Amino acid sequence: MKLAQIRNSDGSLTAAIVEKDGLRLVEGHSLADLVRLTEQDGEVLAAIAKTKASSKVVQGELAIPITPSEVWACGCTYAPSAEFRDTELGAGEGPYAYVSDPKHRPELFFKGTARVCVGPNEPIGIRKDSTFTAPEPELAVLLDSQGTVLGYTLGNDVSAWDIERENSLYLPQSKVFDGCCALGPYLVTADEIPDPYSLRMSCTIRRGGRTTFEGNATVGQLRRKIEELVAYLVRSNSVPSSVVLLTGTGIIVTQEAALAAGDVVTIEVPEIGTLANPAETVPGIN
Ligand code: DO4
Ligand code: MG
Fold this sequence. Notes:
Elements: E1 2-7, E2 13-19, E3 22-26, H1 31-41, H2 45-52, E4 62-63, E5 70-75, H3 79-89, H4 95-100, E6 107-112, E7 117-118, E8 124-127, E9 133-134, E10 137-143, E11 149-157, E12 159-160, H5 161-166, H6 171-175, E13 181-189, E14 200-207, E15 210-218, H7 226-233, E16 243-249, E17 264-269, E18 273-282
Parallel strand pairs: 5-16, 7-13, 8-18
Antiparallel strand pairs: 1-2, 1-4, 1-13, 2-3, 5-6, 9-12, 10-11, 10-16, 11-13, 14-15, 14-17, 17-18
Bound molecules: 2,5-dioxopentanoic acid and magnesium ion (MG).
């Protein structure tokens, strides 16, 4: 089942089942509410949504499909991400290769909360102190508080690579800022994607009428199993329900395609949908 959310005039979100011709709303419930119900009732997400959804099909603009309680992200889970970062450091087989090696503990970092997340067509951020901000297209998983994978969506781990390049201890500043995480367009329940490793992801960046970058990867290139990444996330770390885990990028954008205000980043996985976001410079408060 494909689930989505629409934003109401008071800012709240309503969950919906996505049908071919529109949306069937689950009035009075956000997707996070439905996730809480799955935990209370021991029912699967699709069954809860089905019982509660209206039979009427309506049209609506898609909002972020889930308001995450927390977003975590994995790093260097695909070889190109580790190789690119170690090369930047001039480190050969350096710290990024180490965490990329499935013999070792994976890299996991806190990406933020709903505060830094945007949905389909909403602007992603470029830090005003960064000259090389890049999208990181990633498969995102939605978890309950037991670490069960409830479904999949697309994530953009927007990152200020020049800040990370200056010193890897700057990672939190390169990763967390306004609009640093896009999610959407849909949440596809786990039963509909029995083999996430078969998913093919593509990413383009467009500036005006011109394409400045095109890349693709398959989730089969992920160097670890998703369950392993989740197991590390929940180890001695009691997560709440509706945590989103970004599983790392297999697509590395070139420096010439560093994001500029007005660029549009599009990430696509046919089974999940197309997530498009314009980029804008975020001023923050200073
Ligand atoms: O250590 C850097 C983070 C890497 C990352 O976010 C990724 O590989 O997706
Ligand atoms: Mg990433």
